[in-house]
Amino acid sequence: MPIPVSLHHIGQWSHDIGRYLHRGTASSRNLLQRKCRSSLGIDSGILLTTGKAADAANPSSTSNIPSTNNGTPGDPQLSALLQGFTSTYDASELQFNFTLAPGTNNLSFKYAFASTEYPSFANSPFNDVLGFIVDGKNIAVLPSTNTPVSANTINGGNPLGTNPQNSQLYVNNFPGASVPSLPNNGTPTSKNNIAYRGFTVPLTATITGLAPGQHKVKLAASDTSDTNLDSAVFIQSKSFSSTPTASVAAVPEPSVEWGLLAGVGLAALILPLRPPLE
Fold first, then answer.
1. What phi and psi values does residue 108 have, to the nearest 5 degrees?
2. Which terminus of the chain has a lower count of CB atoms within 10 Å, N or C?
3. Is 265 exposed, middle or buried (CB count within 10 Å of its CB: 0-12, 13-18, 19+)?
4. Lowest-pLDDT range, 47-61, 114-128, 148-162, 242-256?
5. What is the DSSP string of 159-213?
6. pTM for the structure as a whole
7. H/E/C letters for each residue in 145-156?
Protein backbone atom coordinates (compact mmCIF):
# COMPACT_ATOMS: atom_id res chain seq x y z
CA MET A 1 0.00 0.00 0.00
CA PRO A 2 1.16 3.61 -0.47
CA ILE A 3 3.09 5.19 2.38
CA PRO A 4 3.51 8.90 3.19
CA VAL A 5 7.22 9.32 2.67
CA SER A 6 9.24 12.37 1.79
CA LEU A 7 12.06 11.48 -0.51
CA HIS A 8 13.39 14.97 0.08
CA HIS A 9 15.01 13.19 3.04
CA ILE A 10 17.40 11.38 0.72
CA GLY A 11 17.97 14.17 -1.81
CA GLN A 12 20.39 17.09 -1.74
CA TRP A 13 19.90 18.65 -5.15
CA SER A 14 17.23 20.64 -6.94
CA HIS A 15 14.69 18.30 -8.43
CA ASP A 16 10.99 17.64 -8.38
CA ILE A 17 9.89 14.34 -6.82
CA GLY A 18 6.43 13.19 -7.84
CA ARG A 19 4.16 10.32 -6.80
CA TYR A 20 5.36 7.30 -4.86
CA LEU A 21 4.47 3.76 -3.88
CA HIS A 22 5.79 1.14 -1.46
CA ARG A 23 5.15 -2.55 -2.17
CA GLY A 24 5.79 -5.01 0.64
CA THR A 25 4.76 -5.26 4.28
CA ALA A 26 4.78 -2.21 6.53
CA SER A 27 7.36 -3.92 8.75
CA SER A 28 9.80 -4.36 5.83
CA ARG A 29 10.70 -0.66 5.71
CA ASN A 30 12.07 1.79 8.25
CA LEU A 31 14.19 4.84 8.91
CA LEU A 32 17.76 4.96 10.06
CA GLN A 33 18.26 7.61 12.70
CA ARG A 34 20.38 10.55 11.66
CA LYS A 35 24.01 10.55 12.76
CA CYS A 36 23.98 6.94 13.89
CA ARG A 37 26.60 4.58 12.54
CA SER A 38 27.99 1.13 12.58
CA SER A 39 30.78 -0.28 10.47
CA LEU A 40 28.18 -0.50 7.69
CA GLY A 41 29.09 3.09 6.81
CA ILE A 42 25.50 4.36 6.35
CA ASP A 43 24.63 6.73 9.19
CA SER A 44 21.02 7.61 8.31
CA GLY A 45 18.49 7.03 5.58
CA ILE A 46 16.03 4.37 4.45
CA LEU A 47 16.05 0.62 5.06
CA LEU A 48 14.21 -1.85 2.84
CA THR A 49 14.33 -5.50 3.87
CA THR A 50 12.87 -8.83 2.77
CA GLY A 51 11.92 -9.48 6.40
CA LYS A 52 11.35 -7.17 9.37
CA ALA A 53 13.28 -3.92 9.50
CA ALA A 54 13.34 -3.98 13.30
CA ASP A 55 15.39 -7.19 13.19
CA ALA A 56 18.36 -5.33 11.71
CA ALA A 57 19.19 -3.35 14.82
CA ASN A 58 20.93 -6.02 16.87
CA PRO A 59 24.46 -7.47 16.89
CA SER A 60 25.01 -10.56 14.80
CA SER A 61 24.90 -13.71 16.94
CA THR A 62 24.13 -17.40 16.65
CA SER A 63 20.68 -16.76 18.14
CA ASN A 64 19.85 -13.53 16.29
CA ILE A 65 19.16 -14.53 12.69
CA PRO A 66 16.84 -12.25 10.69
CA SER A 67 14.54 -14.62 8.81
CA THR A 68 10.89 -13.75 8.19
CA ASN A 69 8.48 -15.03 5.59
CA ASN A 70 6.38 -11.95 4.78
CA GLY A 71 4.18 -13.95 2.42
CA THR A 72 4.54 -11.33 -0.30
CA PRO A 73 5.52 -11.83 -3.93
CA GLY A 74 8.87 -11.22 -5.52
CA ASP A 75 9.47 -8.86 -8.41
CA PRO A 76 9.77 -9.82 -12.08
CA GLN A 77 12.41 -7.18 -12.79
CA LEU A 78 14.59 -8.50 -9.98
CA SER A 79 14.00 -12.06 -11.17
CA ALA A 80 15.19 -11.01 -14.63
CA LEU A 81 18.48 -9.76 -13.14
CA LEU A 82 19.36 -13.23 -11.87
CA GLN A 83 21.19 -15.74 -14.01
CA GLY A 84 19.27 -19.00 -13.76
CA PHE A 85 17.59 -18.20 -10.42
CA THR A 86 14.23 -16.85 -11.47
CA SER A 87 12.05 -17.16 -8.37
CA THR A 88 12.06 -14.13 -6.07
CA TYR A 89 9.98 -13.60 -2.94
CA ASP A 90 9.25 -11.05 -0.20
CA ALA A 91 10.22 -8.07 -2.33
CA SER A 92 10.26 -4.68 -0.61
CA GLU A 93 10.10 -1.84 -3.13
CA LEU A 94 9.98 1.92 -3.05
CA GLN A 95 8.96 3.57 -6.34
CA PHE A 96 8.76 7.26 -7.17
CA ASN A 97 8.87 9.67 -10.06
CA PHE A 98 11.19 12.66 -10.20
CA THR A 99 11.84 15.47 -12.64
CA LEU A 100 15.30 16.63 -13.65
CA ALA A 101 15.72 20.32 -14.27
CA PRO A 102 17.40 21.50 -17.49
CA GLY A 103 21.17 21.11 -17.23
CA THR A 104 20.92 18.19 -14.78
CA ASN A 105 21.61 14.86 -16.46
CA ASN A 106 22.89 12.46 -13.79
CA LEU A 107 21.67 10.58 -10.73
CA SER A 108 23.91 9.14 -8.01
CA PHE A 109 23.36 7.84 -4.48
CA LYS A 110 25.08 5.81 -1.77
CA TYR A 111 23.91 2.45 -0.42
CA ALA A 112 24.94 -0.86 1.15
CA PHE A 113 23.59 -4.39 0.76
CA ALA A 114 23.42 -6.80 3.71
CA SER A 115 22.26 -10.39 4.03
CA THR A 116 21.77 -13.30 6.39
CA GLU A 117 22.41 -15.63 3.44
CA TYR A 118 26.09 -14.90 4.16
CA PRO A 119 28.20 -16.93 4.47
CA SER A 120 26.46 -20.31 4.50
CA PHE A 121 24.44 -19.77 1.32
CA ALA A 122 26.76 -17.58 -0.74
CA ASN A 123 27.40 -18.93 -4.25
CA SER A 124 24.15 -20.93 -4.15
CA PRO A 125 20.62 -20.73 -5.57
CA PHE A 126 19.67 -18.58 -2.55
CA ASN A 127 21.02 -15.54 -4.36
CA ASP A 128 19.15 -12.66 -2.71
CA VAL A 129 19.32 -9.61 -4.93
CA LEU A 130 18.65 -5.90 -5.05
CA GLY A 131 17.81 -3.63 -7.92
CA PHE A 132 17.67 0.10 -8.51
CA ILE A 133 15.69 0.44 -11.71
CA VAL A 134 15.84 3.86 -13.38
CA ASP A 135 13.70 4.09 -16.51
CA GLY A 136 14.02 0.32 -16.89
CA LYS A 137 17.80 0.12 -16.33
CA ASN A 138 19.33 -1.46 -13.22
CA ILE A 139 22.06 0.65 -11.63
CA ALA A 140 22.64 -1.54 -8.55
CA VAL A 141 25.70 -3.10 -10.14
CA LEU A 142 29.31 -3.90 -9.32
CA PRO A 143 31.61 -0.91 -9.96
CA SER A 144 32.37 -0.41 -13.67
CA THR A 145 30.24 -3.41 -14.72
CA ASN A 146 26.66 -4.37 -15.49
CA THR A 147 26.73 -7.24 -12.97
CA PRO A 148 23.87 -6.97 -10.43
CA VAL A 149 24.72 -6.69 -6.74
CA SER A 150 23.58 -9.88 -4.98
CA ALA A 151 24.65 -12.47 -2.41
CA ASN A 152 26.49 -14.37 -5.15
CA THR A 153 28.34 -11.45 -6.74
CA ILE A 154 29.76 -9.95 -3.51
CA ASN A 155 30.69 -12.35 -0.71
CA GLY A 156 33.50 -13.85 1.35
CA GLY A 157 33.08 -17.35 -0.01
CA ASN A 158 31.26 -20.45 1.22
CA PRO A 159 32.66 -21.49 3.58
CA LEU A 160 34.33 -18.19 4.38
CA GLY A 161 37.56 -17.79 2.44
CA THR A 162 36.62 -20.39 -0.20
CA ASN A 163 35.86 -19.01 -3.67
CA PRO A 164 35.02 -15.47 -2.52
CA GLN A 165 33.45 -13.12 -5.05
CA ASN A 166 34.59 -9.48 -5.18
CA SER A 167 35.60 -9.83 -1.55
CA GLN A 168 37.20 -6.37 -1.51
CA LEU A 169 33.60 -5.10 -1.38
CA TYR A 170 32.51 -7.53 1.37
CA VAL A 171 32.55 -7.18 5.16
CA ASN A 172 32.41 -10.32 7.28
CA ASN A 173 29.95 -10.14 10.19
CA PHE A 174 29.57 -13.86 10.93
CA PRO A 175 29.59 -14.48 14.71
CA GLY A 176 33.01 -15.51 15.94
CA ALA A 177 34.50 -15.91 12.47
CA SER A 178 37.83 -14.41 11.47
CA VAL A 179 39.31 -15.06 8.03
CA PRO A 180 42.64 -13.26 7.52
CA SER A 181 42.57 -13.92 3.76
CA LEU A 182 39.54 -11.64 3.32
CA PRO A 183 40.33 -7.94 2.74
CA ASN A 184 37.68 -6.78 5.23
CA ASN A 185 37.86 -9.88 7.38
CA GLY A 186 37.03 -8.30 10.72
CA THR A 187 36.03 -10.12 13.85
CA PRO A 188 32.39 -9.19 14.44
CA THR A 189 31.75 -7.34 17.68
CA SER A 190 28.82 -5.58 19.28
CA LYS A 191 30.11 -2.35 17.76
CA ASN A 192 28.92 -3.57 14.38
CA ASN A 193 25.44 -3.67 15.91
CA ILE A 194 23.85 -5.06 12.77
CA ALA A 195 22.23 -8.47 12.65
CA TYR A 196 23.03 -9.45 9.06
CA ARG A 197 25.98 -11.84 8.83
CA GLY A 198 27.69 -9.99 6.03
CA PHE A 199 27.36 -6.71 4.20
CA THR A 200 29.01 -4.66 1.50
CA VAL A 201 31.20 -1.64 1.88
CA PRO A 202 29.31 1.54 0.91
CA LEU A 203 28.64 1.48 -2.82
CA THR A 204 27.45 4.14 -5.24
CA ALA A 205 24.68 3.71 -7.79
CA THR A 206 25.10 6.02 -10.78
CA ILE A 207 23.36 6.72 -14.04
CA THR A 208 24.49 9.44 -16.45
CA GLY A 209 23.11 11.03 -19.59
CA LEU A 210 19.52 11.34 -18.45
CA ALA A 211 17.39 13.82 -20.32
CA PRO A 212 15.71 16.69 -18.49
CA GLY A 213 12.15 15.83 -17.51
CA GLN A 214 10.38 13.08 -15.61
CA HIS A 215 11.98 9.74 -14.71
CA LYS A 216 10.89 6.71 -12.70
CA VAL A 217 12.94 4.96 -9.99
CA LYS A 218 12.32 1.66 -8.21
CA LEU A 219 14.49 0.72 -5.22
CA ALA A 220 13.98 -2.94 -4.32
CA ALA A 221 15.37 -6.02 -2.56
CA SER A 222 14.07 -9.59 -2.63
CA ASP A 223 14.71 -13.10 -1.41
CA THR A 224 15.62 -15.68 -4.07
CA SER A 225 14.59 -19.35 -4.30
CA ASP A 226 12.89 -19.28 -0.87
CA THR A 227 11.65 -16.90 1.83
CA ASN A 228 14.22 -17.84 4.49
CA LEU A 229 17.12 -15.67 5.69
CA ASP A 230 16.52 -11.98 5.08
CA SER A 231 18.48 -9.45 3.05
CA ALA A 232 18.33 -5.66 3.08
CA VAL A 233 19.42 -2.49 1.36
CA PHE A 234 20.41 0.63 3.31
CA ILE A 235 20.16 3.90 1.34
CA GLN A 236 22.07 6.89 2.66
CA SER A 237 20.05 10.01 3.44
CA LYS A 238 20.90 13.16 1.50
CA SER A 239 23.01 11.16 -0.94
CA PHE A 240 20.77 11.49 -4.01
CA SER A 241 22.90 13.80 -6.08
CA SER A 242 23.48 14.98 -9.63
CA THR A 243 27.25 14.53 -9.15
CA PRO A 244 28.44 10.91 -9.38
CA THR A 245 30.85 9.85 -6.63
CA ALA A 246 33.24 6.93 -6.48
CA SER A 247 32.27 3.81 -4.56
CA VAL A 248 33.98 3.43 -1.21
CA ALA A 249 36.44 0.53 -1.10
CA ALA A 250 37.31 0.63 2.60
CA VAL A 251 35.31 -0.04 5.73
CA PRO A 252 34.85 2.98 8.03
CA GLU A 253 35.58 2.61 11.70
CA PRO A 254 32.46 2.22 13.86
CA SER A 255 31.45 5.28 15.83
CA VAL A 256 28.15 5.32 17.70
CA GLU A 257 25.72 2.44 17.49
CA TRP A 258 22.78 1.91 15.14
CA GLY A 259 19.74 4.08 15.66
CA LEU A 260 16.88 2.32 13.89
CA LEU A 261 13.63 3.98 14.82
CA ALA A 262 11.97 0.75 15.90
CA GLY A 263 8.26 0.76 15.20
CA VAL A 264 8.39 4.05 13.30
CA GLY A 265 7.62 3.74 9.61
CA LEU A 266 8.62 6.05 6.82
CA ALA A 267 5.74 8.32 7.78
CA ALA A 268 8.23 9.90 10.19
CA LEU A 269 10.10 11.50 7.31
CA ILE A 270 10.11 15.23 6.77
CA LEU A 271 7.53 16.23 4.18
CA PRO A 272 4.43 14.68 2.62
CA LEU A 273 4.54 13.68 -1.03
CA ARG A 274 2.00 13.86 -3.76
CA PRO A 275 -0.71 11.28 -4.42
CA PRO A 276 0.57 7.70 -4.66
CA LEU A 277 1.81 6.19 -7.87
CA GLU A 278 -0.92 4.14 -9.55
1. -150, 140
2. C
3. middle
4. 242-256
5. TTTSS-BSGGGEEE--TT---TTSTT-----TTT---SSEEEPPEEEEE--PPSE
6. 0.81
7. CCCECECCCCEC
